[in-house]
Amino acid sequence: MPQPTKGILISCAEKFESIWNFPNCVAAIDGKHITIQAPAGSGSLSFNYKKTFSIVLLAMVDPEYRFIAVDVGGYGKNSDGGLFNNSRMGKALQNNTFGIPEDRPITENGKPLPFVIVGDEAFPSKTYLMRPYPGRGLSEDKKIFNYRLSRARRVSENAFGILCQKFRVFLNKIQVHPNNVDKIVLSSLCLHNFLRSDNVFLNALDEENSEKERPIFINLPHIGGKSSTDAIEVREDFTKYFTSAAGTVPWQMDTVNAGIL
């Protein structure tokens, strides 16, 4: 799967703002352990924190549930915070070779803000990667930020859900060599994108699997770690926007007050 161009990422950002009300967002990121048959002679290399054998899929998703960048093949043992940082995707972002567009204002006459990717607590906080505020008893403005981020990030969860519903290979442990698992996963993602582009799967999110049809995906564990001063400042800038007259959405307070995130 080719790396997205700046033009594609800018188009994604425009749609994330219009559909999911999160400006300067180029993708939602998620990661999953894909359960596999233990490879011969692998020892604990592919043994993940859930005590099953797996390989790891990191994926960025656009606002319309398409996979735009993936990194597949990391072994399950690498399930800590270093997984993302040591991946090809993580290194490209850190080295500024991924093609993230230049900063731009999200309000008229406002200061330029970075284009960002939204993720959950399984990913580190970076100037280009926003994750929720941690902890309980958060202030109202932090709860609003977490809601707005969660709303945009959910497209990655939904994309994985659609993938499992339509490609039933992900409903059972994959019993082939890890190298072939990579090929199966990448082929499925490409077919998923093709069918999404052809307006198929539009009702997929309304379908439910039976209790016996649970996907073999396992979420990545949450990680700790301190955010950099720059990353904290970027998150605070988005928080101020989401609680301002220019950036608020009419339903956010009802959602936050109801505790629905």
UniProtKB/TrEMBL annotation:
Subcellular location: Nucleus
Cofactor(s) needed by this chain: a divalent metal cation
Pfam family membership, one: DDE_Tnp_4
Keywords, in A-Z order: Hydrolase, Metal-binding, Nuclease, Nucleus
One GO MF term: hydrolase activity
Domain of life per record: Eukaryota
GO CC, alphabetical: nucleus
Boundaries of every DDE Tnp4 domain copy: 29-193
Main location, first listed in the record: nucleus
Family: Belongs to the HARBI1 family.
PANTHER family assigned to the protein according to its UniProt record, in alphabetical order: PROTEIN ALP1-LIKE, PTHR22930
Protein's UniProt name: DDE Tnp4 domain-containing protein
Organism: Photinus pyralis (Common eastern firefly)
